[in-house]
Design goal:
By secondary structure, this protein is mainly α.
Length: about 140
């Protein structure tokens, strides 16, 4: 069990913006991470998704995020860095879809976020940006 705790503690030593290092560490230690307690494992998983987003690995993010969102709901994981991790990951997923020009999917997610939490920062502004980009795309204007 000490090996698991040590893995968690090593991960916590990374600088907040050491995205590539965190991704490499998470992927190299994924078998150990799954045996951490739920709070530690989910916290690391949320951070991993954020790192993938920050370095532009949107397809990889999209292949992993739904499982992590489901685990957050199942595990009653209510807070990550002072925010609701469920809403945060929905927003990150919408932003990844937006960056891949999948505007309709991104719009649906942001609309859901606004319905769940109308006060979520940037959601309404982002929704307008998605609509704007969809309109430009429809008109054939390069973005």
């Amino acid at each position: 069990m000490d090996n698991y705790k040590e893995t968690y503690e090593l991960y916590q030593r990374f600088e907040k913006n050491a995205y590539y290092d965190k991704i490499h560490f998470f992927e190299s230690n994924s078998r150990i991470i799954q045996y951490l307690d739920d709070h530690e494992s989910l916290g690391m998983s949320v951070d991993y998704i954020i790192c993938l987003f920050e370095v532009g690995r949107y397809y990889k993010l999209l292949s992993r995020i739904d499982e992590i969102i489901e685990n957050i709901v199942d595990g009653n994981f209510y807070s990550y860095d002072g925010e609701d991790p469920f809403i945060k990951l929905l927003f990150i997923k919408a932003a990844a879809l937006f960056n891949l020009r999948k505007y309709a999917e991104a719009r649906k997610l942001v609309k859901s976020i606004v319905n769940i939490n109308p006060q979520y920062p940037y959601a309404k502004i982002f929704y307008r940006k998605i609509l704007w980009n969809q309109a430009l795309e429809f008109l054939g204007i390069k973005i």
